[in-house]
Amino acid sequence: MPKTVDHEERRRQIAEAAARVAASRGLRAASMREVAAEAGVSLRLVQYYFDSKEDLLRGVLKHLGGRIAARVARGVESLPRPAGPREVLYAALTALIPVDEDSHRVVLAYTAHHTLTLTEPHLAPEGLAYANALLDFLAERFREAREADQLAVDEDPRTSASVALALVTGLQSAVLAGRHSGPTAVALLTAHLDRLFSPVPR
Q1: Do residues 41 and 14 lie in contact, with contact meaning Cβ atoms separated by under 8 Å?
Q2: Within a 10 A sphere around the Cβ of 8, how many other Cβ atoms?
Q3: Where does residue 142 rank: exposed (0-12), middle (13-18), buried (19+ CB within 10 A)?
């Protein structure tokens, strides 16, 4: 019997190989030939699943967005139940900060590919789908906290979510550049949440 090929798994393997090349040697090194060598497959096979470099970039952005979204989901799902908005926000946001080798590689590769969308905006939808969903999720948690009168500030929940994501993006860059360690970045994020959720006189 011929072996059944899991095409989605094969696409995932190739996208993951491209992410490894981008994280270790830079995005410019992630040619289709280099990706094929990293994945241990033929160039023809890479071209079968991704018919152009642009198509490969789209696939990698989607794959990395999924990897990061999965980290957030695992962080939230690991919380004891019931978990309040503050606990959920902490778990979701800290999951975005590179604190170990795997998360460092994923965030570095995603950042490199996402930066490309600044000059290649037609690639942006693949990479921003997860970010937009995350923003919606965070805004809903801030809305819950606001309705429960748990916040020290009275602002639009989507504004709070956008500021929190902007802070995390800056912390990601600082960790990748070596200006902060992962634990230091987590501590700074924690301080931000503490200020938002600290009790104030009503």
Answers
A1: yes
A2: 9
A3: buried
What's the token pair of residue 116? 């490309």
Give the position of tokens 């501590």: 187
DSSP classification of residue 51? S
Which candidate, 148, 147, 142, 153, places its Cα nearest to that of 198?
153
pLDDT in tens, the chain (202 residues): 445 668 889 999 999 998 888 888 777 777 899 999 999 999 999 999 998 888 888 888 888 888 888 999 999 999 998 899 999 999 999 999 999 988 998 888 888 877 777 777 676 666 567 788 899 999 999 999 999 999 998 899 999 999 999 999 999 999 999 999 999 999 999 999 999 997 654 4
